[in-house]
Write a structure and sequence with these properties.
This protein is mostly helical. Helix content is about 45%, strand content about 5%. Helix 2 crosses helix 3 and helix 3 runs antiparallel to helix 4.
């Protein structure tokens, strides 16, 4: 798939349609705001989850986003743990033979950072992904969506 990710229809309705392309009237609309933390998460993961819910724009995260937020939360907690281990033990460890080798925590930290950034981009948490999401004070409510799409085609 080439090019930019398509802008969701509800954002095109809110921000305008300068290209005058037809709206996708069959686009699924997620419902229900994401709240609470999964019971199985550790204390650190729950803290990350709550941090994301508190600091994300109101109404951005829906119930369907639960798995993407879970990936971000678990990766963020694992990244933090690996970063703390690197800070404690260093980038290089000494084998019993006296030779140095790279800390395995560096690889863990890097893999978790990659997962975090991918999930963050999908959720609109990164500076590069935020311009694709435009929330305005006069944004239409979800129940007004069908009326707006019907009037602006």
């Amino acid at each position: 798939m080439r090019g930019r990710k398509p802008t969701p229809t509800h954002l095109r309705v809110v921000t305008g349609n300068p290209q005058h392309r037809a709206f996708n009237t069959n686009e699924p609309q997620p419902s229900g705001d994401l709240e609470g933390t999964p019971d199985w998460m550790t204390g650190e993961q729950k803290a990350s989850w709550e941090y994301a819910l508190t600091h994300a724009p109101k109404g951005l995260l829906k119930l369907i986003d639960r798995s993407a937020l879970t990936v971000w939360t678990v990766a963020e907690a694992a990244h933090r743990e690996a970063a703390q281990a690197v800070a404690r033990y260093g980038l290089l460890l000494r084998a019993q033979s006296g030779e140095f080798y790279p800390s395995p925590y560096v690889g863990i930290m890097n893999r978790q950072a990659t997962l975090m950034l991918k999930a963050a981009s999908e959720l609109g948490f990164t500076p590069a992904s935020r311009p694709r999401i435009q929330l305005t004070p006069d944004a239409p409510a979800a129940d007004d969506f069908d009326r707006l799409v019907g009037n602006q085609q």
